[in-house]
Fold these 2 entries.
Entry 1:
Amino acid sequence: MSLKQRLPPHLARLEAEAIGILREGAAAFRRPVLLYSIGKDSSVLLHLAMKAYLPGKLPFPLLHIDTTWKFGEMIRFRDNIAQRLGLELLVHTNQEGLARGINPIASGSALHTQVMKTEALRQALDKYAFDAAFGGARRDEEKSRAKERIFSFRGPGHVWDPRAQRPELWSLFNTRIHQGESMRIFPLSNWTEYDVWDYIAAEDIPVVPLYFAAPRPVVRRAGTWIMLDDERLPLNPGEAPETKMVRFRTLGCYPLSGAVESTATTLPEIIAEMRAARSSEREGRLIDSDTEASMERKKREGYF
Amino acid sequence: MSAQRDLLRFITCGSVDDGKSTLIGRLLHECGLIFDDTLAALSRDSRRHGTTGEDIDFALLLNGLEAERQQGITIDVAYRYFATPRRSFIVADTPGHEQYTRNMATGASTASLAIILVDASKGLLPQSKRHSLICSLLGIRHIVLAVNKMDLIAFDANRYTAIVEAYRDFAAKLDFTDITAIPLSARMGDNVTSASADTPWYQGPSLLQHLEEVDVVSDEVGKPFRFPVQWVNRPDANFRGFAGTIASGRIAAGQYVRLAGSGRSAQIQRIVTADGDLAEAMAGQAVTLTLSDEIDIARGDMLVAPEAPPEIADQFAANILWMGAEPMLPGRDYLLRIGQDWTQTRITSLRHGIDVNTGDHVSARTLQMNDLGLCHLATLKSMAFDSYNENRLTGAFILVDRFTHETVAAGMIRHALRRASNIHRADFTIDRAARAERNGQRPLLLWFTGLSGSGKSTIANLVEQALFAAGRHCYSLDGDNLRHGLCRDLGFTDADRVENIRRAGEVAKLMMDAGLIVLASFISPFRADRQMLRELVGAQDFLEIHVDAPIETCIARDPKGLYAKAKAGLIPNFTGLGSPYEPPETPHLRLSTGASTAKDCAAQVLAALREKGISC
């Protein structure tokens, strides 16, 4: 059976492009790693990576930055996938941040993200001396991402300079770096949220069940539903947990991930709901609305 | 959603004020792609940064980065995505500001259609011509001439027709296969997604309708088979596959392919994918090929159709779009990437510049950022390629600075140069080794580099005297002396300095072939040029000697009175004052002439020569 028949032409093109980028990264760099965040984009990225090197195995490990505040279901899903596919999974937590007591509730989302995600990622990349990191970011997610390169150069200290990006022509990627510099590589750059879900459906890719609607214990905060994933989330005065039929469009630290009310329990229902939606997926992500252009600032500091 | 929905990549080109970002914002909005929260953020931003008062400024949706928003101009390429039931679209929003030609070329390189925006109230301006020229050069064959802001000229059909005719006249000399003109108002939405009531005289499609219907079915599949090998997949001793993306043509199991360059052929055994083996595959597919015969194939090689092989050459002519902050200099070496292959190249000459407004040839000695020119290049090894006009993916290359690793240029190959095969080296029996043996010495190049007044010539003179006295055969080359004869035609611009050093290097190499020890004293301020020398004569025979004195010491010495003149403004581009000196990072010797005497320094050089086996 040919690829052309299996997938609609636009998905087949995106798949071929992503596989080409994955192979390029593996061929051009000494020590690459796949940043695995357990979300749907990471699931697609991992699926594509498994395809790209076949019949060989994945020629690099997965790295998960664990803030210790991920949904319990995410961690179980992660460990299960790694075991089932026989993958080398590295998990890194910023122990120093943990010791300082940084957490999304008391420290606020901005500081938590800075210490437990951005700094943790830099620590892990330095610790293992990775010179290239694949990520599942897409250009359609957010404004400052629209101008991100597919092969995105990072200077010493993992700093991104949006003014000094290398022009990227044709598919002739400039993969040259010096010692101490690194590359972030985004094979899903040209995918949209629709493409990701359509591809998950077409390829039958497993995703964390939190994407599907189910009755879950939640509280109403800042116009969204926050799930009580464990006993660490303190209730504000007057707040009472309710059980609502909700699902998540994006996943991160559970106190920072807003759920939407939904009855979509299957992939076709999720896709149908998304097509009718009137808000972007990042709305549920509390970290982006901190300040205008907050994502760009975080990216300059080394955030993914 | 249609199962056969395909993907169209296009770019929008226009000047800052033509309403380009507004048009894309409008397209996204009309296709229901702007979500409520994005719209809310947009209306908040519009009041802060916008230029449309209370209206939502769609342009702000596209101008992503903070700094750009404050300047009100897009400074880079942004990619946007939308889809209709009939097609998926990737839009490159590329800037129209004069100094950002390189961004437009970047967006155009992956697009198959371009929307050229013209402000109806201003008519056809030079920048529209410039953008069209770049699109044509980068291989875009389908054009939409979007005559925007029709509301400002009261939807006047005559003025519209005049603009369209002027454009068609101009574009006749370019390589477009079709031009579709559409009158519209991006801000008001006329003819963007549906026919406008204000243009009853216009019978054609709306912009979106045209984008959905235009036939850009690429003819890549109909071209000869080209498969740049990206990665050799060798998980175990039983499997050896060549992974890559088919650049053009098609291939079936059982067919023969040739390894370009070596000329060896083999039969395709399997076309491996994660979804099972394929009987055949075509342009755009990422596959892994296995061959029936063991051929030595590495990343960077190209498998091709045996009956229609590509060019194989180490010299070629190409259009170069310069993108680096430092100007392009003929004689300099750069890294070149074509397909999956990397090699080293030198721009041997700049034949002429190309005026991006008219396409006319202009004389030029260098290319600055955003300049365009026709160059001759020579590569360290032979490469397989096609002309860019015949094949975008196997005829395009980038140039990368060898030290900073910046991408400094985009190149499009015009044709191979036959000079390599027409000029043969005469082969003489008496070679360098024979002459070296007769002279009883190993030929070497001692390259003294440093600021004017650092003491290069003084030390070289002392060293040469000692060598001469010891019976060695040697010769001194001096920057000043060469400029009286061989290099009389050169000045002191960066381009001329590069050429000066190249000539000095070639002369030194001839003298080494003649069996001599050569002492060369040249300021030679650029690291790249000294690297070029090292490669020209061979690293083992090249002794880079940094004659290192603080600039203050050199100014105080000023033996030729040049610093005084330079300070008085009489010598522009003087090294150390108006022009930089890049010190060697790992010289063979560093002579500190501020701290040691010339005699001591010469003694250090002689000691280094004795280590190299020279009796002196």
Entry 2:
Amino acid sequence: MTHPGLRAALPAAMLSAGLAGGVERCAQRLIQHAARRAPPSLSARLEEEWLADLAARRGLSSLRLAIGCCWAMRIIAHEHTATAVPASACALGNKVMIAGTHHRRSASSHRTTAVLLVICLHAGLIYFLATGLVHRSGTLPPTVIQAGVTHELQPHYQPPPPAAPRLTPTRVEMPEPVFNFDLPADAHPTTDLQVEQPQQPGSTSPPLPARRVPGGPGKGFPNTSDYYPPAAIRLGEKGLVALRVCVDGNGRLSADPTLAHSSGSARLDDGALRLAQAGSGHYRAATDDGRPVDSCFPFLIRFDFKD
Amino acid sequence: MGRADRDVRMSLQTLRVLELFLENPSEQLSGADVQKRSRLASGTLYPILLRLESAGWFVSRWETIDPSSAGRPRRRLYRLTAGGLARASAVFASFGRGVLA
């Protein structure tokens, strides 16, 4: 009883040996054909020389040698003809005829050589594929397929859901607005206008909402020094006047300003009231959530010299 | 083949063959040996051998063996002639001077 692999390998080996022998025989005939096409003085020698070199080769290597010999024959014949034809032409006219006949014969043999080359290439390709495929099928071990459950599948890991964020209410403290107007010093006495909105615990006004922005003097508000009464300047009067102004959403006075706290000088109080009256239209209105609204707020005006 | 001892058109393949023979000028090599060492294709090598032989640089002779006892056919052996040795040496020496022969 023979091994199944051996039974498969035997035909493959026979096929391989047969193909290899066929390739070598093909190469041998190709060399003989090429040598016969060589110049007569070299034909026998080249055939024996090339066949001797072919004996040292096996398989496709012999085919490569044979194809190379065909190519070599073409070169040798061309060089031999190039050197022989001029001398023959000078000697005898019939020699030229012989040379021309040989050239046509060489041209016709090119087609034969090309056909033989194609045949040999196909034989070599078939040999290569057959030996490669058969060798692979003869050496492959029998395949046994086993199926079974080795372990239970583990459930997919699922990461725990992230903890819910804890939100704590944050109270935003808004700083109290302070407006300072510094006037440049020149030859005339100058005053400083300070508009402050201090925290008044006893105030009767309702507390501003969280997003309430209080009003105040805005862009283009008149300069305090223009309303510093000249008589007060001459007398050297200084002081702080507290007014209460009511402004609409357009920055205009919605009511006449009233004196909330006197400076002790009727001239300074009067100058502050005129200043607040002249600033109508130049107040910055209070806003609720960014929306201008009517509001009333205390307005402090300081009349002072600045050296 | 003639023994004209004339110039041979030099190519890189011809130089490789000459270099191989110059390694041991007295050595006789067959076409298969030269092809194995120089790795030239047979279609290139044999015309070069014949060209060098016809120019007188090489001589060739049949191997003196008994094919039946050796188990293989006799080979054609090539070797450098004295003139070929001098010419080949001059070619490679000219490369040392930077002049192509």
